[in-house]
Specification:
The chain has 114 residues and is of the alpha+beta class. 32% of the residues lie in helices and 26% in strands. This is Antibiotic biosynthesis monooxygenase.
Length: 114
């Protein structure tokens, strides 16, 4: 299990439109092979930057999997007009999240889509 972390800088004047656009394209992400849940959170100190965290079964499910798909092309097409800069994307392994000593992981709090 890995996590994709994407920092999505959005033009301040388009934040509400971005939220609606994300809700419209999210089903394309949700139906991707290896998808295990996601969280989209607006920054507190930087409210124009959204943090998208996606749980994937493997790195290959995200890249090249989803990123090489037609669904990803349409997903990005629906969002890119709202970006003020190129998004930053990186990956971490699940163990980094689970190291807090509690039961389960931080993603246990995220609703799962079935």
């Amino acid at each position: 299990m890995i996590y994709e972390i994407a920092l999505l800088p959005v033009h301040t004047q388009h934040i509400e439109q971005f939220k609606r656009a994300f809700a419209e394209v999210a089903p394309l992400l949700i139906r991707a092979k290896g998808y295990g849940g996601h969280l989209l959170a607006q920054g507190i100190e930087t409210p124009h930057v959204f943090n998208l965290i996606v749980r994937w079964a493997s790195l290959e499910d995200h890249t090249p999997g989803f990123e090489a798909s037609e669904d990803h092309r349409v997903f990005m097409l629906g969002l890119e007009e709202f970006f003020s800069e190129e998004p930053t994307v990186y990956h971490i392994e699940e163990a980094a999240f689970a190291a807090g000593g509690g039961q389960g992981s931080a993603f246990d709090l995220i609703p799962q889509v079935s």
